[in-house]
Amino acid sequence: MSGAPALQTRALNLPRHVAIIMDGNGRWAKKRLLPRAAGHKAGVDAVRRVTRHARAIGIEALTIYAFSSENWRRPEEEIGDLMGLLRLFIRSDLAELVRENVRLKIIGDYHRFPGDVVTLIDDAVSRCSANTGPILAIALNYGAQAELVRAVRRLAERLSPEQIDAAAIEGELETRDMPPLDLLIRTSGEHRLSNFLLWQAAYAELLFVDTLWPDFGEADLDEAVAAFGTRNRRFGGL
Ligand code: IPE
Ligand code: IPE
Ligand code: MG
Q1: Given CB 3.0 to 4.6 Å as the disulfide criterion, which of 63, 68, 136, 188 pairs with 19?
Q2: Whose CA is nearest to atom 12 of ligand 2?
Q3: Closest CA relative to residue 125, chosen from 115, 173, 135, 200
Q4: 150 CB under 6 A from ligand 1?
Q5: How many CB atoms lie within 10 A of CB 11?
Q6: How far is CA 184 from CA 99, 192, 220, in A?
Q7: Pick the CATH number of 21-224 from 3.40.50.300, 1.10.3210.10, 3.20.20.70, 3.40.1180.10
Q8: 137: number of Cβ within 10 Å
Q9: Is the CB of 194 within 6 Å of ligand 2?
Q10: What is d(CA 1, CA 117) in angstroms, rounded to the nearest whole number?
Q11: Is 66 touching ligand 2 by the criterion CB < 6 Å?
Q12: pLDDT value of residue 21
């Protein structure tokens, strides 16, 4: 059985927690002479594809960057389009998430979103709350710096300075109930973190791919996971 050891190695090296900066929707649309909204719509199809595939290959937790705390700088119309797509996504995909035993989680201050979207999100999270399977965390109005500021402020209220350590901070992060971040992928050829999971990325493997998010599919996730499997993580040791 020549293939068996390789398969086994790959399974052993499967990242537990993968995060994705889903970038390039606008450029995807532009290349096709379509409005940016069409790129975002195609981006939602990619979300569906990739989240399904992540579950299929056994990734325990997937965190996707859908709206950053800086994305409010975009034109109002585009923000409206993104809110519309979020509404559509929840309406069309929630039943599947419930059925597939997905633990849905939101990171970021989504309470700044329109009231009806907040209600939809809260309802979606509560309908998944009895689930016990893979975690899907969607970052909405998320910014890592604000997350850290909130965490440290909360700690400062109840701890003295010398009691505030890395473990204490980690316990206040929105990802506290998730496995450590193993692999962080950014699509579209940009090489930056754009305020995503700054603390959590400390020892994550980073992977930057040129593929635009709407073109990202099952094979791209497989490739990313395979690349992760070949990385030698030393965590400061030898
Ligand atoms: C990522 O695609 C989606 C969001 C930030 C909501 P972009 O909209 O940033 O696409 P580009 O970077 O302009 O191509
Ligand atoms: C990061 O992409 C945010 C999301 C993918 C939601 P951006 O397109 O907003 O990032 P910048 O502006 O290029 O850094
Ligand atoms: Mg972008």
Answers
A1: 63
A2: 194
A3: 135
A4: no
A5: 11
A6: 27, 11, 13
A7: 3.40.1180.10
A8: 24
A9: yes
A10: 52
A11: yes
A12: 99
**Residue bearing tokens 């990385």:** 231
The model carries a pTM of 0.95
Residue ranges per structural domain of the chain: 21-224
Token representation of residue 108: 């970021």
Tens of pLDDT, residue by residue over 108-147, are 999 999 999 999 999 999 999 999 999 999 999 999 999 9
| Rounded Cα distance, 54 and 218, in Å | 8
The pLDDT score that the predictor gives to residue 5 is: 47
Structure tokens at 113: 């979103």
Residue type, 100: E
CA-based torsion, 220, 107, 165, 180: positive or negative: negative
Here the tokens at position 131 are: 């689930």
Cα(25)–Cα(21) distance, rounded to whole angstroms?
11
